[in-house]
Amino acid sequence: MKKFKEIQNSIxxxxxxxxxxxxxxxxxxxxxxxxxxxAYENVEEEEPVNIYTSSASAVIEAxxxxxxxxxxxxxxxxxxxxxxxDGTTVINDRYGSAMSVIQLQPGDIAEIxxxxxxxxxxxxxxxxxxxxxxxxxxxNLNAGNDSATIGEESFNMxxxxxxxxxxxxxxxxxxxxxxxxxxHGKGSNVMSITVDKGHGYLELKNSEALLGGWVEVGQTVIxxxxxxxxxxxPEGEYTVRLTAEKVDVTRDVTIERNKVTELDLGDIEIPExxxxxxxxxxxxxxxxxxxxxxxxxxxxxxxxxxxxxKVTAEAEGYDSLSExxxxxxxxxxxxxxxxxxxxxxxxxxxxxxxxTATGSGRVTIEAPAxxxxxxxxLYMGIAPVTYDKTAGDHTITLRKAGYITxxxxxxxxxxxxxxxxxxxxxxxxxxxxxxxxxxxxxxxxDDKNRNQNQTTGxxxxxxxxxxxxxxxxxxxxxxxxxxxxNGENSGNGDSGNGNTDNTGAGSSNIDDTNRIxxxxxxxxx
Length: 525
Description:
- The chain has 525 residues and is mainly β.
- The chain has one helix spanning 2-41, and strands spanning 54-64, 69-74, 79-84, 90-92, 109-115, 120-126, 130-136, 139-142, 147-150, 153-156, 162-165, 168-170, 180-186, 189-197, 199-205, 214-217, 221-224, 231-234, 236-244, 247-255, 260-264, 275-283, 288-291, 294-296, 302-305, 307-314, 321-327, 332-337, 344-345, 351-352, 362-367, 372-375, 378-382, 385-388, 392-399, 406-412, 418-422, 477-478, 520-523.
- Strands 3-2-1-5-6-4 form a 6-stranded mixed beta sheet, with no helix packed on it.
- It is elongated, with a radius of gyration of 38 Å.
């Protein structure tokens, strides 16, 4: 027992030493851990660096999901830019709610942030300051006066306004009064226009038996049937009614935007006629024509009872001409060329010339060349073509095989002057959509030139010119910018009341490099 106590007393100091050693090591370990935590807590977290330091207002021109690129126009800087985007790009609507890139539409106005060097978008938010008017049918676009009227409100519309049809950019001059539009802008400025509902064309094939009759396209178009017509119609589905002597038939058609729909009338059974069709080709075109001493209009083919008829043509400054024609069941063409009246000799040897009226002036469609020209659905000839002026609002349609048919509204004034129009070249039917003339590819590039490259070809055709006495009233797009004698823009023009007052000098040549697309040039007769 005594020996056990001795062993126990010798072990106690060892155990005590061991406890002290263990206790000291634990304290040091806890102190070191506390020091590390304290040092970590005193280090501040670094904020991420914002690389999108540039901002601007922008109008969306096009979005390519495939190449993750977006074409934008920056109106405040008058720049066209193409930026890349990715999954980190923040896209919000005007209320700050997230939206997808496919919801962005050409013509939308947005506020953007971007990195100028990387040409990458950081965020794009539809502008809360922008306004939109959609489905507008009552409007007036005055490109020459940089103004637009929407309903009863007036807005500024600069030359940089963007216009879109089916997602592709078009020229303002391609809008006609039949189109339905949406307007987008800020304050009193129109920044973009979208064509909600455009127009197409109806061509009547094998219509010879119906010449002089009438065609009704729904409740939209009513016109007398003439040779080689190309009828401008708002896009949509219609029932076409065709009426003539003892004929009253209907056909269903679908008119697509910027496309020509052919309607073949060769299957219509025509009863034995009691009259015949007469087509008049009178020179000068301003001559008055009388059939059996009754005044008639020769703009369209005329139906006359079978048999003999007396035709008389008169024009101031010309000798009158009369002749008899025989109307049969087959269509006939009457050509009459009046000769200018000769001066009257007096006894003293002095001559007294017949007084000649200044006339109503002439219209020349100069460009693009080699296209078929129609005014208010009637064929006028192959450009360059010249015909008599008819005061009022008119729709000029340009057509060529292999190219997209285009129409332009013009306003012709009754001022006795000759006027020449030069319109943009037609685009090939297989042309690709572009943004500012450049394709959006996988590598975005800058583009500060908003003009589109267009191509024309050759098309030879000989046709006689005719005169249209038909006018279309309604909303008109006018451009009163004139060309001076050097073919340059003189900037003089005023069409605030919807009429164009052209007073440019009378040079007959337009330098292509100085051409104002869609503008007109007057000269004194």
